[in-house]
Amino acid sequence: MWWVAGGAAIALAGAAAIARQSLEQQRALFETDARIVHRLLSQQVVQHDAILATLALLQPAPDAPGSRSPEQRLPALYPRILSVQRSDATTPWPDPGLAEAERLSRQSGRAALAPLNLSGGRYRLVLASEPASYALTIDLQALVPWSEWPMAPQTSAVRVELVQAGQRHLVQPGRLQAGAGARFEFHKVVAAESQSFDVVATQTVGWRQWPWARMVAWVLAVAALLAALQHLQRQRLARRRAEELLRLGQVARLNTLGELAAGMAHELNQPLTAVLANTQAAQRLLDDDPPELSTARGAMAQASAQARRAAEVVGRLRRAVERPDSGAQRQAVDAVDAVRRALYLLEPECQRRGVVPMLDGTPALGVMADPVALDQIVHNLILNALQALEQVPATQRRLTLTARTVDGMGELAVADSGTGIAPEVLPRLFEPFFSTREGGLGLGLSLCETLASGMGGSLWAANAANGGAVFRLRLVLAGAGE
Q1: Domain check: are 319 and 340 in the same one?
Q2: What is the pLDDT of residues 69-86, one digit of tens each?
Q3: Does pTM top 0.85 for this prediction?
Q4: Omega into 70 within 30° of 0, i.e. cis?
């Protein structure tokens, strides 16, 4: 149903929004930490340029032989500086790589990196100057200011690396997961042209780290809301169905009362007419007797008057409860819509009996009828068919309704797979007060036939060839004869 699909779409959309919000929050936290890491590392490497520039500017002279030169005291101030080397005209570089770095430094006018070996955890930085050039050997792991670090290096899920010329140095291992649900990355070169290390931060968000609790809570909340809405919808439909059934029941009771009154009037009119005729005859006979029988004549006249009064009372009762003329209220209606309305009202009865009605034939059948009377006939025919199906096993219950045009008339057939109609019952089926059901008044089918006749149509029943009974209602087609 549409509300199930809509609810599922809302639940999935909400869960996706919760997941996306959680990922955005984790991404924002990751990027904040990565920027702090980049800033801290940039501050550290920029200091190296400043230290070399200071050494080149001051050009401290060596101390006396056997003593340490002033620049050799730098590792005590900066633990990340493992050593400071100096080269001048008398002390060439012991390593060709430092000599090449000095050449590059003279060309660029700034410090230059010696050939890298980041896997060894250190690198060398050379600044060319006169009369002496200087080189720093820097410990990469000691480069990190752990006291200001924004993450716990041993437990954080973020991996931090320094990358330069295809070489990598792992600063923080992190916990990267293969096939994770999301992956965050951060790349930015440190703020020192001489040490162009790329700070690379990476984090993966595994499926276990997704906000499943909130997502499931949202789905359950949507499911609970849909269940409540479905319950309210069912209550509303049940109330509407009950109102329609009450309306049909009221119309049925009025029509049944009219049928009953008509039957009573028909049954009482005959004896009342006989009483009237007998009293009039007696009056005439008494008139032939001796003329002093005024008391007898008065009694007979009074009996005659009472008989007429009784007939008038019955007549007034009949007129008071007589059904309206269905023929005068005829209009063009769709018989298929009447079937759908009846099936809607009788849906609980069908479900209780395990019957799935089949509607065949034309999708629309316009006939001339009183809409209320047509609804009542169709409702009664379907309800009778459902009651007949109670006599067969549930697996054999079939109810088929067919709308079609036959011989210039609109026909609606209601067929069931019940036990059928007994041959001795069939001729009396529409007889008033005749019923085969215990406690039945025997007025339902009689009333349906009367209503059908009043609308210019007909109703009859027969046994189907393949078992069960079929009732056929024929009415004048809408527009016929116009």
Answers
A1: no
A2: 667 778 878 889 999 998
A3: no
A4: no
